[in-house]
Design goal:
With 697 residues, the chain is an alpha/beta fold. Helices cover 19% and strands 34% of the residues. The strands form nine sheets. It has an eight-stranded mixed β-sheet with strand order 16-15-17-18-24-23-22-20. Strands 4-3-5-6-33 form a five-stranded parallel β-sheet, with helices on both faces. Strands 8-14-13-10-11 form a five-stranded mixed β-sheet, with no helix packed on it.
Length: 697
C-alpha cells in the first residue's frame, strides 16, 4: 500500500518568507496601480521564486497496514461471584475470543481488573484504570473497540469517551439477572476509639434494595469479640443507634449482622465489622505504705511520673496504739479515711498496692475482707512485702490471705543477690526481655543479670500462681496469680528502690512496675495466654502467647466460610506467629481450639457491595456516546462480532461491531522535489525575459 503527499521544507524561515511574499504583493499592486505592462509575467516570476524558497516535495510512502486491537475487559470484582455471573463472564469471554479470532487482522487483548479484595481501599470496581494503562501502549488509530464483561457496578467511569483517547465503540456484556433484590447493612457512624467503661454508640441503617417499596424491620445482632451484646429489630430504611461498652484496653472487634431479607443476592453485605480501640481515661491507684522507709518515695515517684495515673497515697506514721502525750493540735497528721477508701469508694480504684503493710489495728478485718472480695470480683492487688510479712503481723494472717499466692515461711534472707528471671518468666510478658535480664556469662561463670543487687528477701512458699522472678537459693521473688476474676502480684522484697537509686548500675524498676501494673489491670499486650490477630499490609498477622512449650496449629475461618490450618512459627520464648495473605475482605475468625479471636479486613462499608444488583444504568451514557451497545447475557444468545467502518451503525439486533482501524507502519519513503534548481532557474529567467520584452514594446 502506497500513499502520496506534499511536504514543504522552506529554505528560509517562514516569517522571512512571509515578508518576501508581502513585498512582492505590494510591488505588484503598485505596478497595477500605474497600469504597467507585464504585471502578470512579473507575478509569475515572483511566484516561481517564492515556491522555490518554499521547497515543495512529493512524498511517496510505502505502508504496511497494522492489525486492529480490541480490548476485552473482564470484571474480577467480588460482586462477580454472585450467582452465575462468574460462569457467564467465562462463557462470554471464550465466545468473544472465538469470534474475534476469525475476523482477520484483529488482535485481542484481555484485561482482568477490578479485584480489590485483600486491600484496605474503598474504591469499588476499577476497570477503566487498567484499561487506560493498556490504551496508552497502543496508537489510537489501531483501537477498534472495547468490550466490557461486568455486572455494571463500575466505580471509576470516565466522564466522556474522548477522555479515554479513543474513537471506537464501547460495549457492555452485562452479567447477572434482571429484577434482582438484596438486603444490605451499612454502618453510617462508628467510633475509632473509646474510653473503657464509658457508653459508646454506633449508627447503622438496613435497606432492602428492591424495585418496589420496602418496609418492615430486620433483626440486628451486635457482638463484641464474639460475645453477644444485644439483639433488636431495626426498621428498614431508617437509621438506628446501638450502644455498647468496651471492657478492656486495646482493640475490640464489634460484629454487626442483620438477618437475611426476603430477597438476597449475597450475605456478605449483611455483616459489618468495626474495630474500636479502648483507652483508659485515668488509672486510679491506691498506695498504702505501712510505715516510712527508703523505698516509699521510689514507689510514689514512679507512679506520679505517669500522667495517666491518679495516685492516692497514704503512709501510716502514727498507729492507734502509740500514746506519747503529744497534743492533737501539734500533730500534722490526718486520720486514715478507712471507711471512705475501703468500703464506699473501693470499687473506684483500678489497682491497690500494699507497701510493707502490717497489721496494726488501722484496717479492721472487715475492710481487708472487702479488699479480698474486690480482687475476686475483678480487682487488682499488688503487695510489696517487708520484714513483718514473716511475722504474725503479716497480711497473710488476715482475710486477705486467701487471695495471696505466697505463704510466709518466717525466714528472712539479708544477703546480696541479683534478681533473676525464671525459665517461665522468660516466656511471661511481664518479665520477658527486661533490659539486662540476660547478660552474657564470663568464661567459667554462670550468667548473671546486668543489674544491681538487692539485699533483703522474705521467703515464702508459693501456694498458687506463677513464679516469674527468683532470688536467693532460687526462692520466689515475684509471684503472679489469677484469683477469681481479678489478679494479684506479690513482690517478696522491699529493696526494689535500690534500682531507682542507680546502685551498682540500677535496674529496670520503672519498666517492671509498669508491666506488673498493666498486667494486673488486664492490658491485652501483657496477657501471657493470648491469641491476637490483626490485618496489616495485606496480611493477617496472628500472634500466640503462651507459657507452654508446644502450641497447636491455628484454624482460620475466612469470610467465605472456608477454613485453613496454619502452623505457628516460634519467635522467641512464649511467643509464636503465623501469616496469611488476605484474599477476601470481611471478618476472619482464628482459633487454636482453646482461644478464639477475630480480625476485620477491608473497608467498613465496601463500595463494591453497596449495591450488588446487576445494572447498566451507570455506564449507559458512555455507551451511547461511543455508539456501543448493552447486551444482557442471562437468557439471551451471545452476540456476533462484526467489523464496521465510517459512520455505519456499530451494533444491531444480534450483533455488536468493532471499528476497522487505519493503523499502519511506514516501511519506505520516496521524496521527489517538485521544483528542481534547473527548472526554477529556467522559469525565473523565462518570465523575466518575457516581462522585459513586454515592457519594451
Amino acid at each position: 500500500m502506497t500513499a502520496l503527499s506534499i511536504q514543504w521544507a522552506p529554505l528560509l524561515p517562514e516569517a522571512l518568507l512571509a515578508v518576501l511574499a508581502v513585498v512582492a504583493f505590494l510591488l505588484l499592486a503598485l505596478a497595477l496601480f500605474r497600469r504597467a505592462s507585464g504585471v502578470i509575467l512579473r507575478a509569475a516570476a515572483f511566484a516561481v521564486l517564492l515556491l522555490a524558497l518554499a521547497n515543495p516535495s512529493l512524498i511517496e510512502e510505502q505502508r504496511d497496514p497494522l492489525s486492529d486491537v480490541v480490548f476485552v475487559v473482564a470484571d474480577e470484582s467480588a460482586s462477580q461471584d454472585i450467582g452465575e455471573r462468574r460462569n457467564q463472564t467465562d462463557t462470554a469471554l471464550a465466545h468473544l475470543l472465538e469470534e474475534l479470532g476469525v475476523l482477520g487482522e484483529t488482535e485481542v487483548r484481555v484485561i482482568r481488573a477490578g479485584d480489590s479484595r485483600g486491600t484496605e481501599t474503598n474504591e469499588g470496581t476499577a476497570l477503566f484504570g487498567a484499561l487506560r494503562q493498556a490504551l496508552a501502549k497502543v496508537p489510537r488509530q489501531r483501537v477498534a473497540g472495547v468490550i466490557l464483561l461486568s455486572d455494571g457496578q463500575i466505580h471509576d467511569l470516565p466522564e466522556t469517551v474522548e477522555s479515554l483517547g479513543i474513537e471506537a465503540p464501547v460495549h457492555l456484556l452485562l452479567t447477572g439477572e434482571e429484577n434482582e433484590g438484596d438486603r444490605r447493612l451499612m454502618v453510617t457512624q462508628a467510633p475509632s476509639f473509646g474510653i473503657v467503661g464509658d457508653q459508646l454508640s454506633l449508627t447503622l441503617q438496613v435497606d432492602d434494595l428492591v424495585d418496589g417499596p420496602a418496609g418492615g424491620s430486620g433483626q440486628v445482632t451486635l457482638r463484641r469479640n464474639g460475645e453477644l451484646l444485644q439483639s433488636l429489630d431495626v426498621p428498614i430504611g431508617s437509621e438506628e443507634e446501638l450502644t455498647f461498652e468496651l471492657d478492656h484496653r486495646g482493640p475490640s472487634v464489634l460484629e454487626i449482622e442483620v438477618a437475611p431479607g426476603p430477597e438476597e443476592l449475597t450475605l456478605a453485605n449483611n455483616r459489618a465489622a468495626v474495630v474500636v480501640n479502648g483507652v483508659r481515661d485515668r488509672l486510679r491507684v491506691l498506695l498504702v505504705s505501712g510505715e516510712p522507709h527508703a523505698g516509699e518515695r521510689a514507689w510514689r515517684n514512679i507512679l506520679k511520673s505517669d500522667p495517666s495515673v491518679d495516685l492516692v497515697h497514704f503512709t501510716i506514721l502514727r498507729p492507734p496504739e502509740k500514746q506519747d502525750g503529744t497534743p492533737i493540735r501539734e500533730l500534722s497528721l490526718i486520720a486514715f479515711p478507712t471507711r471512705e477508701l475501703f468500703e464506699i469508694k473501693l470499687d473506684e480504684f483500678d489497682l491497690i498496692i500494699f507497701d510493707r503493710y502490717r497489721r496494726r489495728g488501722v484496717l479492721p478485718s472487715i475492710y481487708l475482707e472487702n479488699v479480698a472480695n474486690y480482687v475476686e470480683q475483678g480487682g487488682a492487688l499488688l503487695e510489696a512485702v517487708g520484714p513483718t510479712f514473716a511475722s504474725p503481723l503479716s497480711l497473710y494472717r488476715t482475710p486477705l490471705g486467701r487471695v495471696l499466692p505466697g505463704e510466709p515461711t518466717g525466714v528472712i534472707f539479708e544477703n546480696g543477690f541479683h534478681p533473676e528471671v525464671t525459665d517461665i518468666g522468660q516466656r511471661h510478658p511481664v518479665t520477658a526481655g527486661l533490659d539486662g535480664s540476660a547478660a552474657a556469662p564470663s568464661e567459667g561463670a554462670e550468667s548473671t543479670p546486668a543489674w544491681g543487687r538487692w539485699f533483703r528477701q522474705i521467703d515464702a512458699d508459693p501456694t498458687s500462681g506463677v513464679i516469674v522472678m527468683q532470688g536467693i537459693e532460687q526462692r520466689p521473688l515475684l509471684i503472679l496469680d489469677r484469683v477469681g476474676e481479678g489478679r494479684v502480684a506479690q513482690l517478696m522484697s522491699d529493696h526494689m528502690w535500690l534500682w531507682s537509686r542507680g546502685f551498682e548500675g540500677g535496674g529496670p524498676q520503672a519498666e517492671l512496675l509498669r508491666r506488673i501494673s498493666h498486667w494486673l489491670m488486664k492490658e491485652p499486650d501483657l496477657e501471657e495466654d493470648d491469641l491476637h490477630a490483626e490485618v496489616r499490609a495485606g496480611q493477617l498477622q496472628i500472634v500466640r502467647r503462651s507459657l507452654g512449650e508446644a502450641l497447636p496449629d491455628v484454624t482460620v475461618t475466612l469470610p467465605s466460610g472456608e477454613e485453613r490450618s496454619l502452623p505457628l512459627t516460634p519467635e522467641g520464648p512464649g511467643r509464636a506467629s503465623a501469616r496469611l495473605s488476605i484474599a477476601e475482605n470481611g471478618l476472619y475468625q482464628i482459633t487454636d481450639g482453646t482461644l478464639t479471636t477475630l480480625a476485620a479486613a477491608g473497608p467498613l462499608n465496601p463500595l463494591e457491595l453497596r449495591d450488588p444488583r446487576s445494572s447498566g444504568a451507570l455506564i449507559d451514557p458512555l455507551l451511547r456516546e461511543s455508539g456501543g451497545a448493552l447486551r444482557r447475557l442471562a437468557g439471551q444468545d451471545l452476540p456476533e462480532l462484526r467489523k464496521v467502518s465510517g459512520s455505519r451503525d456499530r451494533f444491531g439486533r444480534n450483533w455488536i461491531g468493532v471499528k476497522s482501524g487505519d493503523g499502519f507502519i511506514v516501511t519506505g519513503v520516496l521524496q521527489i522535489p517538485l521544483l528542481p534548481a534547473l527548472l526554477v532557474l529556467l522559469l525565473a529567467l523565462g518570465t523575466a525575459v518575457l516581462a522585459w520584452q513586454r515592457e519594451g514594446r
